[in-house]
TrEMBL record:
Superkingdom of this protein's organism: Bacteria
GO biological process assignments: monocarboxylic acid metabolic process
Protein name: Short-chain dehydrogenase
Pfam families linked to this entry: adh_short
Record family assignment: Belongs to the short-chain dehydrogenases/reductases (SDR) family.
Organism listed in the record: Portibacter lacus
InterPro entries (alphabetical): NAD(P)-bd_dom_sf, Sc_DH/Rdtase_CS, SDR, SDR_fam
Length: 237
């Protein structure tokens, strides 16, 4: 039952991660959300607790730091007794022509969007194998569609899609399911954007949350290993 599950969501203090947490706690799951800021994690957790009977904790962790991710998993298990689901959501975006993209921007993008997912998965894998649980990575349509000024972001998301699909093959015999969700335009704070009324046509964070819920409640015999999701009616260019 979904109500009995313990879920760790990286980058869960806002945007897609928060939207996923909001949907899952409404179903009675126990959720740990991480952020690079303890204050942001705590504030988001307090907000989520309004509908969750205190089954939410906030944890400070940077996915680029493997030891921090190990501690996040340990804190989740200490609070809730186990770990069933990892949602590897934390991500950043730097978009610039290769002539202007800096080495620091490249490194941060790869370390967060790709190495960061490896760190989260590696830190939680023993526990998820034990629970025969689920790993969901949040990639992007940019993981199959390249675009100008996307060298760093495309590289990270193409890599993440490949990583996720290979991971799925590595752990399926352990009873662990792996899916990667590839959203198009989502109304979030990504890349310093502030969501507003003009974003009504975009995917909303709670839509991704509902998709995660659908994956977690699907019959175990079926695995949607890669899910592309896009706005149904984008504005005409």
């Amino acid at each position: 039952m979904i109500k009995d599950k313990v879920v760790l969501i990286t980058g869960g203090s806002k945007g897609i991660g928060y939207g996923i947490a909001e949907v899952l706690v409404s179903q009675g799951t126990k959720v740990a959300i991480t952020s690079r800021s303890q204050k942001a994690a705590d504030e988001a957790a307090e907000s989520l607790k309004l509908s969750s009977n205190d089954n939410v904790i906030g944890i400070e962790s940077d996915v680029a730091d493997f030891d921090a991710e190990k501690k996040a998993v340990e804190k989740t298990i200490k609070a809730f007794g186990k770990l069933d689901v990892l949602v590897a959501n934390a991500g950043v975006g730097h978009f610039a022509n290769i002539k202007d993209l800096t080495a620091d921007q490249w490194n941060q993008t790869i370390e967060t969007n790709l190495t960061g997912v490896f760190n989260s998965v590696k830190a939680s894998l023993d526990s998820i194998i034990e629970s025969k649980g689920y790993i969901i990575t949040i990639a992007s349509l940019a993981g199959t569609n390249f675009f100008a000024q996307g060298t760093a972001y495309n590289a990270s998301k193409f890599g993440l899609v490949g990583f996720s699909q290979a991971l799925m093959l590595d752990v399926r015999k352990d009873g662990v399911k792996v899916s990667t969700i590839m959203p198009g335009s989502v109304a979030t704070y990504f890349n310093d954007h502030v969501p507003n009324e003009a974003d009504a046509w975009k995917i909303q964070p709670e839509d991704i949350g509902k998709l995660v819920l659908d994956l977690l409640t699907m019959n175990p015999r079926t695995l949607p290993s890669k899910v592309e999701v896009r706005p149904s009616m984008p504005p005409s260019k």
